[in-house]
Amino acid sequence: MFFKSMTSGSIGSHRAFMGVCTTLCVILSLTLYVGWKLYFFNLSNRNTLLKLDQNAEKRVQDLENLGISFEGAKTEAPPPSTLPKILAGGAEPVITTPAHSSSPKDSPYPAESSIRELPLLETSDEVVQALALLDQYWKTESWQDRMPLVAHSERVASLMKEYYEAQGAIDPVPGSLISKARYEIDGTEILYFSFSSSRPTGSLEIAMLRGPQGRFLIDWESLTGYGEMSFQEFRSKRPNKPVLMRTYVRLFEYYNFEFADSKKYLCVKLMSENGESSVYAYCERGTKLARWIEADLASTGPTGFKGYTMLISFPPNAQSNQCVNLDKVVAQRWLQVP
To answer: Is residue 155 part of a domain?
Structure first.
């Protein structure tokens, strides 16, 4: 018989071989187990980092729509005693004014702002009271009853009356709270809140300024995107005198009517605060305003945009209701601090 003919030496070798195989299988199994565990751990970490990066990009986009530079918010502006900062971005070098001073009235674009991010304690009385005031604002239907809740109420009372009664405009509808922060812009402290929204940016940005009695009040003009005319009225009346408007702005390629020469003009597309109306604005290439706009909007890409406060007008005997003069960028944001 075969098994009877096996020697004790061959049986020992067989057992040794089986032991080696078993050991190798165990080692291989452990290696595969550890490898898969490390793979899924790294994959989970990667997804977490991607999500954090997307959230960070979303916050940067929200702040830029309000006109807040994320990079500028990290560092304080240099004191007046230091050398003035030079405007970057490939534009002609323009010396910016020291912090807390304004751009000359005849400048076609705003001076660079001093922006500093401040610590925010989310459970502080100021933040809790500010959120309660916002909730009260949304629940208050009459614009007259909203007056005590807005900053600079004496100045904006006539603007609110014109906005709600003459323009027939309505407030944006906020969704869930996305983020909150605290900043100092050109010496003015603000609380910043971002809510989900149907606006073109997907978010509603709200700035609150400290009022005379110390509590934070709503900056109503930047909240609503107030303009001296609605987009519909502006396109209908075609005013030749510059009109103050708050718009979403992006570089664009549309050349027609009086502005058909793409070599002569720079084009930007302006969208209303609700994204339902738009016009195309032009300024001559090579001018200080054109170079400033190209530099400032260079980071937005083909689909991004920023929020500007600007002056626009129609050319005399306008050939269309959609091509206008870009006269001046008043502010690099919808918020205008004193």
So the answer is: no
